[in-house]
Structures are given as C-alpha cells and as structure tokens.
Amino acid sequence: MTMSKKEVSNDYESLLASLPEDFFARFKTMEELNGFMSSLFKRGIEQMLEGELTDHLGYDKNNPLGNGSGNSRNGKTRKLIKTESGEVIIDVPRDRNADFEPLIVPKRQKVIEKIESIVVSLYAKGMTTRDIERQIKEIYGVTISSSSISNITDQIISDIAVWQQRPLDDTYLIVWLDGISLKVRHEGKIINKSIYLVIGLNTAGKKEVIRMWINETESASFWMNVLDDLKIRGVKDILIACSDNLKGLTKAIKAIFPETVTQLCIVHQIRNTMRYVAAKEKREFMKDLKEVYGAINLDYAQEAFYRLETKWEKKYPYAIKSWQANWDELTVFFGFPSEIRTIIYTTNIIENLNRNIRKFTKNKIMFPDDEAMKKAVYLAIQQAAFAWRQTIKNWPIIANQFKILYPDRVKINELYLIERR
Q1: What are the tens digits of pLDDT across the range 199-247?
Q2: C-alpha closest to that of 256 among 161, 322, 172
Q3: What's the CA gap between 371 and 156, in Å, rounded?
Q4: Which of 199, 259, 168 minimizes the C-alpha distance to 392?
Q5: Do 326 and 360 lie in a common domain?
Q6: Mean pLDDT of 326-347
Q7: Does some domain include residue 331?
Q8: Are residues 276 and 362 in the same domain?
Q9: Is residue 172 part of a domain?
Q10: Smallest Cα–Cα separation from 219: which of 175, 192, 252?
C-alpha cells in the first residue's frame, strides 16, 4: 500500500526520534557529516536495488523457492553515479538471465534524475554546455562532461516531437503569427534561420504556443505551409489572425482559412512609418498619428487620417503611402469592443515571447545545428507558457463578446464562466 506524503513524513520523524540524542554530536565537521550521509545514501540505494531484484525474481535471497526457478542472483557490478551530493560508487546486483532492469538507477544511466532536471533547467535559461559543466562542478562537486549534458538535453527532442504532434483545438478565437531569426551552422556556414511561431487564444481563454517551424527565410509561401499544417492537425476555424505586414501573408491566411479576419499589427506599422520621418519632426508626427489609431471608432480614425494626410503627405509621402495601401487591414480592430481591441491591434503577445527566446538564447552566438536551436527555443517557450496558466485579463467579458459576435462559429468553455460567477 502506498503511503501518503504525510505518512512518509511522520515515518521519517519517528525514525529520527529513535536515534540517540547525541547521535549527530559525533560528527565534528561538515565533511564528516557529508561522508556519513554519502555512505547512508549508498547503502539506501543498494538496499532498494536488492529489493527491486527480489521483486523481479519473485523470491528473497537464499530462499529455497528460487531453486529451479530459471533465474537467480549473479553477483554485483560496480557503478559510478552522479548525484546532487557528489559522486558515489554503488554495487548493482545482477541476475543470471541479465533481464533485470533497475528502476531507481536504470541501466546506462549514471546521472540521478534530480541532477538531470537541474541540467535541463540551466540549459533552458540559456547557459552553454561548458557553463553548465562548470556550474554543476562548483555547486555539487560532480563532473559531467559536455557530451553527457548534450545526451541529457537530447531527451528534450522526444518531448518536442510529442508537443509538435499533439491534437489541437478545432477553433481558436485569435492567433498571433510572427517569426524570429537565429544564427545556426548549416553545411559549414553560419546562416540565419527563421523560427515560425503561432500563439493561439483558445475557447477556454488561455494562450498557448501552438507550434514552431524552422525555415531559412520568413516568407508568405512558407506561412501558407504553416497554416495548412494547422488545418491538417485539426484546426477548423480561426476567428481573428494578427500579424505584421509581410507581403502576401494576408493572402496566405485567407487561402487556408477564408473566413478569418486579418488584423495587421499597428505597432509594426508605426515603426515602419517613423523610419521615413525626420528626427526633429518625429514627436509632432507621432502625436498626429496617435489620433488615428487611438480614435474611439472608425469614423473618427478616418477624419484623423485625413488631417494627417493633408499636413504631412507632401513632405513624407512614403510614411503616408503604407497606411493608405493597408487601411482596411490596419483598422479591423475598430469593429470590435474595447476589450478585444486591446489584444488584437498589436502582436505584442508574440513579441514578448520572442524577447523571452532571445533572453534565453543570448549566450549562444550560434547554434551547431537545427536540433540544438529547436531545443533552446522549445525550453524558452515552456518557460513562457508557465506564466500562461491563467486565463487572459477580462476573459468573462471577452468570452461573452465573442459569443455575441460569432454565435454560430464558436463554443466558449461554459464551465469556466459558471465557476467565475
């Protein structure tokens, strides 16, 4: 019968209470206490391994039930294992048939799971394998080679495969699309490769990174492959798609999800616009521009844009031209209530993710291959996703607004709304 954590804790306390009062007084230095704890750990691991072998064979050591059973104990083999307390040599029992597979210290594994999790955590924070090797040595007194660290982090690849192929929701209220460029070695050269990222807001009001893709450049044609992949994996409908003004991207979205409303990122548009304005007039121009995207509705926005055109078009025609060419897709957000507007008029959500990725990969001048880049980005995504466990701000209001706007296309998670009331 499995004991609860409370029962195990009480068992430990009873065991400690049974020790003589002066038991720990015999240790004069921390080195002596650490030596004792290491010996205790070694003995505990070895006894647990003996217990595992007994369960595997079906009889205790020297028990006559083992006679003629077809398998028996066959001595021991020495193994060096690395723990957060240092390196320990243990004796691992063997069976004659060599089919005993220990669980506590699996075959071919020399690093205890806790150390593995620490290695993965440090890797996720952007540390190089050499830095991790040094850190583990300084803190735990354990030497782990760069190749061992790579082997540990390689286990992430299987996690990525599962994550990439997990079933997706059939409907996403909003998706944000963007790419990030990282340097990677490819065929002997260092080149830039684009990581394509899609974040979705699901019908439970939570954000999730739907998937990542790698390509040498960011292009509308590859984005079509990305969107087609989403459809193949079960996404039937996307209500609103937010992206930057990459040429052809809106057409790609419409080709795969024809009913999707597309909103170009206002922040990207402003950045591109201000490149064409002289430094001395940026403040004044920006004040006039803010009246456009900050208007209370589309009519007021059009009036503000007419004033902007009249005042600045002759002087900065290229700053105005892009707004004229993309006006319909830049102003989509005016057709939604304010709570939805604030989360669709910009791709800040995905840009924040990109900043986290750069934060965790800043120590890596370049990646040796695509897999190393994929591991680092995946771990950065998981770090960011940890903060997304809660629903977005104003979710009950936003949920009701989507239900009113799209009564036939979306089913909001009713349970969550009931629990909130």
Answers
A1: 999 999 999 999 888 888 778 888 999 999 999 999 999 999 999 888 8
A2: 172
A3: 10
A4: 199
A5: yes
A6: 93
A7: yes
A8: yes
A9: yes
A10: 252
